[in-house]
Amino acid sequence: MGERTKKRREWFGNVISNKMQKTVVVAVERSVVHPVYKKVIRRVTKLKAHDENNICKIGDRVKLIETRPISRHKHFRVVQIMEKGQPET
To answer: What is the DSSP letter of 35?
Structure first.
């Protein structure tokens, strides 16, 4: 049977907010080349992601995966925490 499963895209980013319940805001950084000046520009996109157990802290580097819409703005899920952020002093 020709079962089609679309490859889900993955993103890596840093958690910048965890104030909401079961939701984190992740800043994903990407580099693009300016069409005229050919200079590399950093672009930051803020994505809301589902964090089921509220384990992500601010500063953590996380891996996100694309998923079905969970709410109006949430279309991503935290798969794993790549590295922990620095503890606040």
So the answer is: T
